Amino acid sequence: MSKQVNNYERLMNVIQAPYISEKGTFIGEAHNQTIFRVLKNATKKEIKAAVELLWKDQKIEVKKVQTINVKGKQKRFGRLMGRRNNWKKAIVSIKEGQELTFTNLTKAEGK
User: Fold this and answer.
1) C-alpha to C-alpha distance for 48 and 10, rounded to whole angstroms
2) Phi, psi values for residue 17, rounded to 5°
3) What is the 3-state secondary structure (H, E, C) of 47-107?
4) Is the distance from CB of 47 to CB of 14 less than 8 angstroms?
5) Which tens digits make up the pLDDT trace of 6-47?
């Protein structure tokens, strides 16, 4: 059951947000990688296509994508124990000499 990678609307929704943390900033500077929060059912091919689509004006080429399923933490809500949602993290490697910039980034014109 393969999904169609070229589905424009799907690709525009695969990447939810950049994930900014101290460790992520270190990885980005040292290894030319960026971390994103993505849909739980997103594949590596979809993530690669989505990054290249969102930054097509900068002609970004993705070298490699690594994904991690992050389990939600248990938290207390008053007397009750609750749990945060699970989510998926994607570490995207960009080819040398290229850089992802988040300024002037708007989702591409919808069809």
Assistant:
1) 13
2) -170, 155
3) HHHHHHHHCHHHCCCEEEEEEEEECCCEEEECCEEEECCCEEEEEEEECCCCCCCCCCCCC
4) yes
5) 588 899 999 999 999 999 899 888 999 999 999 999 999 999
